[in-house]
Write a structure and sequence with these properties.
The complex is a heterodimer of chains A (about 240) and B (about 190).
Chain A lengths: L1 H31 L7 E2 L8 H9 L5 H4 L2 H12 L5 E2 L4 E2 L4 E2 H8 L3 H5 L3 H15 L3 H9 L1 E2 L2 E2 L2 H9 L2 H10 L13 H11 L5 E2 L4 E2 L10 H4 L18
Antiparallel strand pairs in A: 1-2, 3-4, 5-6, 7-8
Chain B lengths: L1 H20 L7 E2 L1 E4 L8 H6 L1 H13 L13 E9 L2 E9 L17 E11 L2 E12 L15 E6 L5 E8 L2 E2 L5 E4 L2
Antiparallel strand pairs in B: 1-7, 2-3, 3-4, 4-5, 5-6, 7-8, 8-9, 8-10
Classes of the chains: A mainly alpha (about 240), B alpha+beta (about 190).
């Protein structure tokens, strides 16, 4: 009888110790986890220029009308990642255009580390497939019909920014009628992103075969609704200095 | 001392059994992740709930991504929960495919939900019937690379046994996401 009781006690103590160890492990994991998003570098750190990203965009499967302003899209890549294709932002997004993990799986059939280690061209191809799909969403179609939105010209950079921040989020902005209708957790709006993409593009950027300087002013987005409804001059957000003409 | 230990063990065991029983007792259940890369002829999610989604993803991987899948499936994942309701089983599932509307792609963004195809399927004596097709929220279960505030992220579902209604909700960063709070009738 005493032996049975002793065995039971031993088993209980053993299980209790394991339970306490498991609890301590959970606590240790909780403290080890970062409280806020920690950026992670996968594979090599790169510093692709806006022109190099533009060249990859031009060589990608992106639809031709968006390629017409690929210089802005090179700027978008610089704005998102600083040209570093191996960077994970610690919460959702990886690579040159900071694709979220769901889109990495859907458009590249891999995980964030696999994506970060792909070539620049492979990353841009995945982003181009996502952008082509997003082109047909109601938010994008509506923006293209509008021509201007809250005083901002709707150009390819604006459309790409709409898709970049998510068609659902973009629809929220469109429904509100204001740039401030959607902002991410850092307060970035789609209008801010479009502006930053333009600012980050290479001023000497050349399209495709390097024979033609990018046209990054009004009218750079050759869609019928936009061309048929040019923005008022006061709505233009491109400031051209005398030396730039 | 031994009485204390036995009480502690009994408490731990009761916690485990209540988690199993909660499947259809109206409590919130975290929807579990399934990865369809390994083909299965017995998984009802692959054979009865999402065979068309898997087929489409495989075709896209072959055609657009130029991938040789070597007998595997493309990387399709789904969340699901199974409830027992009277004599039938009910599976509710959302699947991450190109038909989803996902969140932001942006260095300043955090974890966001995707809104994806949703199916509610009943299994009755081996026969599957799609009760409802709709849209519902999807997120991957958290991994260690995510910040502490996202370690409890989940999509949850519960069945009200009295009304037969399934409710879904999402918790991301410790907050309930309003657009993911949805109800679906099953009767």
């Amino acid at each position: 009888m005493r032996t049975i009781l002793s065995d039971t006690l031993k088993t209980s103590v053993f299980l209790m110790i394991r339970f306490v160890r498991a609890c301590l492990l959970v606590c240790a994991l909780c403290f080890a986890l970062p409280a806020t998003a920690q950026r992670t570098q996968f594979c090599e750190r790169t510093n692709y220029s806006a022109q190099e990203i533009t060249d990859a965009v031009n060589a990608s499967v992106l639809r031709d009308d968006l390629k017409s302003t690929s210089c802005t899209l090179g700027g978008l890549g610089r704005f998102e990642s600083g040209g570093n294709k191996g960077i994970f932002n610690g919460s959702c997004c990886t690579g040159i255009f900071q694709l979220n993990t769901a889109n990495v799986r859907r458009y590249a059939d891999t995980n964030r580390e696999g994506y970060a280690c792909m070539s620049l061209q492979e990353q841009v191809d995945a982003w181009a497939r996502l952008t082509n799909d997003g082109y047909n969403t109601p938010a994008v179609r509506r923006l293209m019909e509008m021509g201007t939105f809250d005083g901002q010209r709707v150009d390819a950079g604006f459309i790409a920014s709409c898709i970049q921040l998510g068609p659902g989020n973009c629809q929220e902005m469109v429904s509100s009628g204001r740039c401030s209708g959607f902002a991410d957790s850092n307060g970035t709006t789609i209008c801010d992103m479009a502006r930053s993409a333009r600012q980050n593009s290479d001023p000497n950027c050349r399209e495709g075969n390097n024979s033609q300087v990018c046209d990054m002013g009004p009218g750079d987005f050759p869609t019928t609704p936009v061309a048929a409804n040019p923005p008022a001059s006061s709505a233009s957000d491109i400031i051209v200095g005398p030396g730039q003409i | 001392m031994s009485r204390l230990l036995i009480t502690a063990l009994a408490f731990m065991l009761s916690g485990m059994t209540s988690a199993v029983q909660a499947q259809s007792d109206g409590a919130w259940q975290t929807m579990a992740l399934s990865d369809f890369r390994e083909p299965s002829t017995t998984d009802p999610l692959q054979t009865m709930v999402w065979p068309d989604a898997i087929r489409d993803a495989n075709a896209y991987a072959n055609r657009e991504l130029k991938k040789n899948l070597n007998g595997k499936n493309a990387w399709v994942t789904a969340l699901s929960t199974r409830f027992e309701d009277k004599s039938r089983s009910i599976i509710i599932s959302t699947v991450l495919t190109r038909a989803c509307e996902s969140g932001a792609n942006h260095a300043g963004a955090g974890v966001e939900r995707s809104i994806c195809p949703l199916r509610i399927v009943t299994l009755d004596h081996g026969k599957a019937t799609i009760l409802r097709e709709d849209r519902g929220c999807y997120i991957d279960p958290p991994d260690a690379a995510l910040p502490a505030q996202n370690q409890g992220d989940s999509i949850q579902a519960r069945l009200n046994p009295a009304t037969g209604q399934i409710q879904m909700r999402a918790i991301i960063g410790g907050k309930l996401i309003a657009e993911c709070a949805r109800s679906y009738p099953t009767r």
